[in-house]
Design a protein that fits this description.
The protein has about 200 residues and is α+β, with helices and mostly antiparallel strands. It is about 35% helix and about 10% strand. The protein has a 4-stranded antiparallel beta sheet with strand order 1-2-3-4. Helix 2 packs across helix 4.
Amino acid sequence: MDFIQVKLQHWFYERKNKAEGTFYDVSYWVEEELKNRIDLAFTLNVFPVDSWRSRVEEEGITFLVDLNKRTCDCFQFQLDELPCIHAIAAIEKRNIKKSDFCSHWYLKESWLKTYERQIHPVGHTDSWIVPESVKSQIVKPPDFKVPPGRRQKKRHIPATEPSKITFKCGRCRRIGHNRTACIYSPALHPFSRKHREE
């Protein structure tokens, strides 16, 4: 529990500082994603239909982009809630900010709000102020019904887990096979029945 508390405390402090230090309207990941999509968007042909809608052509296929409804025929705009390459092409044609068409979950404000609280250290148990109502409570173990039958001592090994069982041959004493599949037949004993028959 102490390790988890220290780890969370470190994460919250580090990520809050990172969010405060960004100059973008969105998170670093979103900004990088939009930059990668801009390179592809410049290769597309954009034909405005009205103030919000555009017809975008990509390799002979036409996509209708509605910036007001935040939709595109490729459905990536709706699924990611980030402008797809077709939407970015339409946005660039109108010189509008791309961050205005991102979900509010990707914005810097949401990023800061996620890590606005601090994870405080618990401190030593001697410094805890525990109310008497909590101290007086008796915590009992959970109800547990013993199932019928013999208790299992070994755990079940799943089929996906590699087996650690090694086979040892009873004939040649080598590892990796048993006596039925043994190819290393030892020399016959001089007093064996098989030796006498020969």
